[in-house]
Design goal:
Length: 296
């Protein structure tokens, strides 16, 4: 008999959750009430998929942007090349049971389960219609991408193509998100909460350049190269961000030459404006941050 790993309520619709079975970590995805089980470790570098982003039936690894099809474990986008092992999953009396007899995308797909459903009923494999909640989340992600200056002129289809490479990450109040002088690996867009952009933290005389709230991006230039950050970004309160990794973005760009050309044109325009501003002597002065008192 397949072991029981948890309750249906542990995996709300549109989410993923990890369970341990006989020392093995397995992730379960809930897609419109259908449960799918597969290895938790990404086949690229072993990152946990339980903290990844689920969009429809596509699950994006939070580390390097690999995208997997949760219905059969197949790879949608790299860098991962090997599919995930998938497992039979059942719902009996509101409890989730998983059998560890795994299969890969090259074999017959293991069974999924429908929630709620009669015991042991298998889920249909036909197309599904996105729920209002899923559609709202999709629109929210698309709007966040559109707020990035680098993507400002992209159409809806191009934004949807980039959305598959995004992930979500949360930061606690006071947590450093990016550090001045450190190499960047990608961009973030604030979904909730607020962050401050600060220079001079290491010198002991920090200056706040600006405060960013929901819908505002930062760090997008790191999508194109491993240049050092020019400022630090710190969470003012609890913050949720949508992120995109440089490796995943550049991999996607290689398959979209027209998109790459548009990016180059946009960057050229930004550089020209920056040169013009410099010639005009325009610059921004930040506000000093209050110094922390130090006990003798």
């Amino acid at each position: 008999m397949a072991p029981t790993v948890g309750k249906v309520g542990d995996v709300p619709a549109g989410s993923v959750a990890a369970f341990e079975i006989e020392g093995k970590k397995v992730t379960v995805a809930n897609v419109e009430g259908r449960l799918f089980a597969f290895d938790d470790a990404c086949t690229h570098m072993g990152c946990s998929l339980a903290t990844g982003s689920l969009t429809g039936t596509a699950l994006t690894c939070p580390c390097h942007g690999s995208v997997f099809q949760v219905t059969d474990g197949s790879v949608i986008n790299g860098p991962a090349k090997r599919p995930l092992l998938t497992y039979d999953v059942e719902v009996i009396d509101g409890k989730i049971s998983i059998s560890l007899g795994g299969t890969s995308a090259a074999e017959d797909r293991g069974g999924s389960a429908t929630v709620p459903a009669a015991p042991s009923v298998r889920a249909p494999q036909g197309p599904t219609t996105a729920s209002p909640a899923a559609e709202t989340d999709h629109e929210r992600r698309r709007a966040a991408l559109a707020s990035v200056p680098l993507f400002a002129d992209l159409d809806q289809a191009e934004l949807d193509g980039l959305e598959a490479f995004t992930f979500r990450k949360q930061f606690a109040a006071g947590e450093m998100i990016m550090e001045d002088g450190r190499t960047g690996n990608g961009l973030y867009v604030v979904l909730s909460g607020s962050v401050e952009v600060v220079q001079g933290i290491a010198s002991g005389r920090p200056q706040r350049l600006r405060v960013l709230g929901a819908g505002e991006p930062f760090g997008e230039i790191a999508l194109l190269g491993d240049w050092k950050r020019s400022a630090s970004v710190r969470a003012i309160d609890d913050v949720e961000c949508m992120g995109m990794d440089r490796w995943a973005f550049l991999t996607h760009l290689k398959t979209k030459p027209a998109l790459a050309i548009r990016m180059l044109q946009m960057l050229a325009g930004r550089l020209a404006k920056a040169d013009a501003d410099a010639d005009a002597g325009e610059f921004v002065v930040g506000e000093p941050l209050p110094q922390e008192s130090q006990d003798d």
